[in-house]
Write a structure and sequence with these properties.
Helix 1 packs across helix 9 (272-279). The chain has one domain: TIM Barrel (Alpha-Beta Barrel), CATH 3.20.20.140. The strands form 3 sheets. It has a 7-stranded parallel beta sheet with strand order 7-6-8-9-10-11-12. Strands 14-13-2-1-15 form a 5-stranded antiparallel beta sheet. It has helices spanning 5-12, 64-69, 119-128, 148-160, 174-181, 197-205, 221-236, 258-266, 272-279, 306-309; strands spanning 17-21, 27-31, 34-39, 54-59, 77-80, 84-86, 103-105, 133-139, 164-170, 185-186, 209-211, 240-242, 291-296, 314-317, 321-323. By secondary structure, the chain is of the alpha/beta class. It binds zinc ion.
Length: 326
């Protein structure tokens, strides 16, 4: 029975605790605070995230100026990439949701600062506006993509700045192009092809992060299956999976997305591994401080119940929670 603290931890990880809220007396489970590792803040109301169980968010494509100026609410804690770096005319240039402020077209592989259209210029600009990661878009199904020389220059300059480079890799061989240039991970579990066992093993061994976004492929069964199988293989190879929804893209609940949680579960990321993917502080080293994700009501008894149960998640101040374990 999961009401036993030991069974609860076996199901939800070592940091799960039975507790109640000091003010309301409401009983439930306290979990480390969750982060959605792939969102676009300009497309939804971030102040609603905490009520939906999300304490941290990583913006993977927005206007760096607006992101640098945004009001700091404390929670959600926000990290961001700034603009999408892409090839001239490449994805997502021209998309209705992608105004010019959120893309930078790189036409020169120069690693020298201040070169117009240069690789270093684009990375430096994002860094100067407070970016913690760099996002590159490689979508061969929607226009030109950066060549490997330019992509490698982006990665080299980002690495000098201590910034991870995360790729949107769409189209055949795009994950390989990103991998060979030395990126740190993928904004979406690769969904255009099966990447293969050797790729999965090397990606896991390289310490890559894979942001899941499995549920956005609803309506495209082939892409959904590629993403699920690739992510399952990556997780099985010991890879670091991060929960992410691409929130802002299409109709999605603002908060924990039960469809994404269910899809992760079906990809074999369940139990403690699921909670780890949701509470990984990446790209920070430490979780958002002063808060926990709290799920009211009776705890789940079985891994099959976890995804549905997490729909009730909310974020509460740690000081409001009283442990019931002792
Ligand atoms: Zn996105």
């Amino acid at each position: 029975m999961a009401h036993d603290p030991h069974a609860l931890r076996a199901l939800l990880g070592e940091d799960a605790e039975l507790c109640h809220r000091a003010i309301t007396g409401e009983h439930g489970v306290s979990l480390p605070p969750f982060t959605d590792h792939h969102v676009h803040l300009h497309l939804f109301d971030e102040t609603r995230l905490a009520a939906g169980g999300i304490a941290g968010a990583v913006d993977l494509g927005g206007d760096p100026v607006a992101l640098a100026r945004r009001e700091n609410h404390g929670i959600p804690r926000v990290a961001y990439a700034g603009a999408f770096l892409t090839a001239p005319g490449g994805y997502p240039v021209g998309r209705s949701w992608a105004p010019g402020e959120i893309t930078r077209e790189i036409s020169d592989p120069s690693a020298h600062p201040g070169v117009p259209g240069g690789a270093a210029t684009a990375v430096d600009e994002q860094a100067s506006f407070g970016a913690s990661v760099i996002k590159v878009a490689l979508n061969s199904t929607a226009g030109p993509v950066l060549d490997s020389e330019t992509l490698s220059a982006v990665v080299a300059v980002a690495r000098e700045r201590g910034l991870a480079v995360i790729a949107h890799a769409e189209g055949e061989r795009m994950p390989r192009l990103a991998f060979d240039a030395g990126v740190s991970g993928f904004a979406h579990a690769p969904f255009s092809e099966y990447v293969g066992r050797a790729f999965l093993a090397r990606s896991a061994a390289a310490g890559h992060v894979w942001i899941s976004t499995l549920a956005i492929h609803r309506g495209d069964e082939e892409a959904a299956e590629f993403a699920r199988v690739n992510l399952a293989g990556f997780a099985a190879a010991g890879g670091r999976v991060l929960y992410g929804t691409d929130l802002g893209n299409g109709e999605q609940p603002v908060g924990v997305n039960a469809d994404e949680v269910t899809a992760l579960d079906r990809a074999g990321v369940r139990g403690p591994a699921l909670i780890r993917a949701m509470s990984d502080p990446w790209p920070h080293a430490e979780p958002p401080s002063g808060v926990r994700t709290f799920v009211p009501g009776p705890p789940p008894h079985h891994a099959d119940e976890v995804a549905g149960w997490l729909r009730g998640a909310t974020v509460v101040p740690t000081e409001e929670l009283v442990h019931d374990d002792h």
